[in-house]
Amino acid sequence: MPTDKQQIINQQQQYQNKVKKVSPKPPLLKNTIWAFVVGGLICTLGQFFQNSFLDLGVNKKDASALTSVVMVFLGAFFTGIGVYDELGRRAGAGSVVPITGFANSIVAPAMEFKREGYVFGIGAKMFVIAGPVLVYGMVTAFTIGLLYWLML
Amino acid sequence: MQSYFMAFLIGGLICVIGQLLMDLTPLTPAHVLVLFVVLGGILSGIGIYQPLVDIAGAGASIPILGFGHTLVSGTLEEVAKTGIVGVFSGALTAAASGVMAAVVFGFLMAIIFNPKG
């Protein structure tokens, strides 16, 4: 029995090696340039909204918050009409890392699992990726906050 | 004009780091998002992220690192004002509008639109 298992593992490894040889290498440079340009442009758009709110006389903190709200709306909307995921296919992290990508990570699975209902479909699947982000973000903030309080 | 240039440059570079992580390590986009939120929080805690926001504007606040920064800087501000209560209330108070927008707009768009194909 153990030899059989060994054989299977060996075969699997050989297969993995073959796949590695045959499959094309990810075009690293191209992906990086796409991520830089698209990510940079999304942030530039954010800067435009932020500057506009500041020009309207909104204070700095609220301008920042409103900018996030607008960008989240845009990310959610363009995911809804199917444009954002198309962009993401090329832009990779350029569309994932900005806050529009966070909105995308909420809308895309919620839409996908709509047929499973309003509770277990939309309600639950919205947080497949956003949930972990909130959990780890909040735990980080809590821990740092506690350390800061202890040092005060 | 300079604010746009810095937003483009720094925002783009942060996304490049994310892309390299996705291409050169087994990390998925979800892992990168989680990692960046935690990283943004830590950089904020040790006082590095706010100066970056001052320089890069939306280039630092729009990437998800900025969300971690909002959570942590909001917590520290509240702790300074209200003590231990701030540890519990600071993060979500600061991030309230972003989280509210994400949940409500996300819900609406998921109801209105259907996936392609």
From TrEMBL, chain A:
Lineage of producing organism: unclassified sequences, metagenomes, ecological metagenomes
Alphabetical UniProt keywords: Membrane, Transmembrane, Transmembrane helix
Name of the protein in question: Stage V sporulation protein AC
Xref: Pfam families: SpoVAC_SpoVAEB
Organism: bioreactor metagenome
Positions of transmembrane segments: 33-53, 65-84, 96-114, 126-151
TrEMBL record, chain B:
Pfam family, one: SpoVAC_SpoVAEB
Keyword Transmembrane: yes
Keywords of the record: Membrane, Transmembrane, Transmembrane helix
InterPro entries (UniProt xref): Spore_V_AE (IPR014204), SpoVA (IPR005562)
Spans through the membrane: 6-25, 32-49, 55-72, 84-113
Organism per entry: bioreactor metagenome
Annotated protein name in UniProt: Stage V sporulation protein AE
Entry annotated with the keyword Membrane: yes
